[in-house]
Amino acid sequence: MSSLHDRHRAVLPDWLALYYKDPIEITHGEGRHVWDADGRRYLDFFGGILTTMTAHALAEVTKAVADQAGRIIHSSTLYLNRPMVELAERIAALSGIPDARVFFTTSGTEANDTALLLATTYRRSSQILAMRNSYHGRSFSTVGITGNRSWSPTGLSPLQTLYVHGGVRGRGPFAGYTDERFVDACVADLEDLLGHTHDVAALIAEPIQGVGGFTSPPDGLYAAFRRVLDRHGILWIADEVQTGWGRTGEHFWGWQAHGQAGPPDMLTFAKGIGNGMSIGGVVARAEIMNCLDANSISTFGGSPVTMAAGLANLGYLLEHDLQGNARRVGGLLIERLRAVAAGVDAVREVRGRGLMIGIELTEPGTDRAAPEAAAAVLESARENGLLIGKGGGHDTSALRIAPPLSLTVAEAEEGAAILEQALRSL
After folding, report:
1. Which residues share a beta bridge with 284?
2. φ, ψ for residue 202 (rounded to 5)?
3. For 23-68, how does the pLDDT look when each residue is reduced to its tens digit (9 = 90+)?
4. Who contacts 296 (Cβ-Cβ below 8 Å, separation ≥6)?
5. How does pLDDT run across 199-228, given as a tens digit for each residue?
6. d(CA 9, CA 7)
7. In this structure, is the dihedral angle defined by the CA atoms of residues 138, 140, 142 and 148, taken in order, positive or negative?
8. Within 10 Å of residue 72's Cβ, how many Cβ atoms?
């Protein structure tokens, strides 16, 4: 009989990436651990790409899903939906956006698609500002605004996209500046760029770039951008698909590190809110959300089952202060990893906050990316019972570490020890 890997390759696209030379099938999980089809247990430091945010097999979420599925699984947005209204109320109140409206989708890609539709309709413009090294999804419109060539297979787009400096602190022409001068230079670049364009619809930005390797600007950059955008009437979309729900520890939303000029006009979310269920969405001021002049619905966005999961997961997250846990345990983990990295020539930088940590690898003594080293660390960590991710943009390679937010101190230390062994083996 053919292996599952052989069957995968026979019927699925070649571009559907798999981790590891011998890909693993994950069969079940519990807490911060998962098991493969051979019965091997792994400490999970990637959470299905930052999606299993709280814990695997969380009883509260499992029960909510089962109870709702036993009543009704699907109805669409053409009917009133109590779990959807209740989750929208909670998210609107948490968003920080005044007079907020919430639209649910099934993914972060679709959420960003919707935000782009709203922005271009509201502003009557097809021009978008995006950050270099960014990633916003795999649909036709979101690929067109993604500033990372590894994840943008076509230059065709319904939008005209202009890319702004600032998403990466440690590389590029402003890398050697102080934080204050870095922000000033990026703002000056934005001002100059706007002098060359027609009306722009929106700036979309991840507070911490996820696929790009967990890079971020100094706190306050997007607040400084916001002051410029406001003068031109340009909207600010905060892509919180990876940074939302307290993962950064210091803030519930990533935009709050840049909140000196107020909240964004829109924020998009997905991943962690469902703890593995397919939930995405957009929060926007009512005048923006209501600007569409044609009918629209969602067949699967706001499904009663996924909304029940989101409500249970969000309730657990808040009641158990998982944001505070991300701050405390994440702070310990990042300092432990920095101590490890100090003795490894291939590590250029350990960065991030909360339980969103990146380790950038380079060829020793250079700034050149070391993708082979990143792949080797990924393999070594797996062999020793730890699952992590990887990413990076222009000439970079980074390990991505993003465990469930219920991670314990003992588990953080266990994972750090495995990573130390993998890094020192380079």
Report:
1. 101, 266
2. -165, 160
3. 999 999 999 999 999 999 999 999 999 999 999 999 999 999 999 9
4. none
5. 999 999 999 999 999 999 999 999 999 999
6. 5
7. positive
8. 12
Using DSSP bridges, classify how beta strands 100-105 and 280-285 pair: parallel, antiparallel or unpaired: antiparallel
Q: How many CB atoms lie within 10 A of CB 176?
A: 9
Rounded to 5 degrees, φ, ψ at 354 are: 60, -140
Contact 143, 222 (CB under 8 A): no
Distance CA 23, CA 34 (A): 14
pLDDT at residue 1 is higher than 70 = no
Task: Indicate yes or no: pTM above 0.85.
Answer: yes
For residue 390 the two structure tokens come to 């990887």
- 8-state DSSP, 271: G
Q: Which two tokens stand for residue 344?
A: 């490894």
Task: Report, as an integer, the average pLDDT of 119-138.
Answer: 97
Tokens 């319904």 belong to: 158
In the predicted structure, residue 150 carries a pLDDT above the cut 90: no
State the DSSP string of 72-89: -S---TTS--HHHHHHHH
Tens digit of each residue's pLDDT (9 = 90 or more) over 254-265: 999 999 999 999
